[in-house]
């Protein structure tokens, strides 16, 4: 398999959880735990893309590259695009974007998504897992994805897709008649793809669903989607998520 690097964007001033990268997860700052998980993968380098000196300081002694990016980045992809310019990465560099709020990410998933990108020769690769809980299909916080016969994304949505016409029209839905898949927010792409994406305007679909990956589909780029039966535990967006992750680590 070709070499790849991991980029971990981390924003200090999170709206819902201020100072999120420094939140205690299992006795250490969350950003440190994410980096340590990424270092267990086969990546040749792990780069933390941060925006605050306090976040950089807690990574002292951790064998990662720390890149200070600006406070103006609107999303993690913007932060990685800025890092590519600062570090002058080769356009063909394969990058796996691991979210800075996924302290329980499995190294195997990082390797899998990098391999998928190369094997499928796609513009981007990502992962999903089959949904078993009916409630998740109707939860806008659970992003769904549908794929074609070759495993390439057709669409991502916060709404139920596919929509089971006969089933979902009932007063109460107790079971699913077709397969539904939950998108896992880990991405692999080449540096040149990120810069190309970054240079394009937001599409109407991206704005409507608030999903970055829809910009790639809007401009005709391909997204390979792999199915895993070992999805990561919940990421950390809120105080409740933080409590849940720490409870999992204690157990």
From TrEMBL:
<dbReference type="GO" id="GO:0008690">
    <property type="term" value="F:3-deoxy-manno-octulosonate cytidylyltransferase activity"/>
</dbReference>
<keyword id="KW-0548">Nucleotidyltransferase</keyword>
<keyword id="KW-0448">Lipopolysaccharide biosynthesis</keyword>
<dbReference type="InterPro" id="IPR003329">
    <property type="entry name" value="Cytidylyl_trans"/>
</dbReference>
<dbReference type="GO" id="GO:0005829">
    <property type="term" value="C:cytosol"/>
</dbReference>
<dbReference type="GO" id="GO:0016020">
    <property type="term" value="C:membrane"/>
</dbReference>
<comment type="function">
    <text>Activates KDO (a required 8-carbon sugar) for incorporation into bacterial lipopolysaccharide in Gram-negative bacteria.</text>
</comment>
<dbReference type="InterPro" id="IPR004528">
    <property type="entry name" value="KdsB"/>
</dbReference>
<dbReference type="GO" id="GO:0033468">
    <property type="term" value="P:CMP-keto-3-deoxy-D-manno-octulosonic acid biosynthetic process"/>
</dbReference>
<comment type="pathway">
    <text>Nucleotide-sugar biosynthesis; CMP-3-deoxy-D-manno-octulosonate biosynthesis; CMP-3-deoxy-D-manno-octulosonate from 3-deoxy-D-manno-octulosonate and CTP: step 1/1.</text>
</comment>
<dbReference type="InterPro" id="IPR029044">
    <property type="entry name" value="Nucleotide-diphossugar_trans"/>
</dbReference>
<dbReference type="GO" id="GO:0009103">
    <property type="term" value="P:lipopolysaccharide biosynthetic process"/>
</dbReference>
<keyword id="KW-0808">Transferase</keyword>
<comment type="similarity">
    <text>Belongs to the KdsB family.</text>
</comment>
<keyword id="KW-0963">Cytoplasm</keyword>
<protein>
    <recommendedName>
        <fullName>3-deoxy-manno-octulosonate cytidylyltransferase</fullName>
        <ecNumber>2.7.7.38</ecNumber>
    </recommendedName>
</protein>
<dbReference type="Pfam" id="PF02348">
    <property type="entry name" value="CTP_transf_3"/>
</dbReference>
């Amino acid at each position: 398999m070709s070499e790849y690097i991991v980029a971990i964007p981390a924003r200090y001033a999170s709206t819902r959880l201020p100072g999120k990268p420094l939140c205690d997860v299992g006795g250490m700052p969350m950003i440190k735990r994410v980096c340590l998980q990424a270092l267990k993968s086969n990546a040749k380098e792990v780069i933390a893309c941060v925006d605050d000196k306090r976040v950089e300081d807690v990574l002292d002694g951790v064998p990662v590259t720390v890149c200070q990016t600006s406070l103006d980045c609107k999303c993690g992809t913007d932060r990685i695009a800025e890092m590519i310019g600062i570090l002058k990465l080769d356009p063909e560099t394969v990058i796996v974007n691991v979210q800075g709020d996924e302290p329980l990410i499995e190294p195997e998933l990082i390797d899998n998504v990098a391999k998928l990108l190369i094997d499928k020769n796609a513009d981007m690769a990502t992962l999903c897992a089959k949904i078993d809980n009916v409630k998740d299909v109707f939860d806008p916080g659970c992003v769904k994805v549908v794929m074609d016969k070759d495993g390439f994304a057709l669409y991502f949505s916060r709404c139920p897709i596919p929509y089971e016409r006969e089933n979902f029209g009932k007063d109460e839905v107790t079971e699913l008649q077709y397969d539904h898949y939950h998108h896992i927010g880990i991405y692999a792409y080449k540096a040149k793809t990120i810069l190309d994406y970054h240079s394009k305007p937001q599409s109407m679909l991206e704005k409507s669903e608030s999903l970055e990956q829809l910009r790639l589909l809007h401009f005709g780029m391909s997204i390979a989607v792999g199915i895993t039966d070992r999805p990561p535990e919940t990421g950390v967006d809120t105080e409740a998520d933080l409590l849940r992750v720490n409870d999992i680590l204690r157990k």
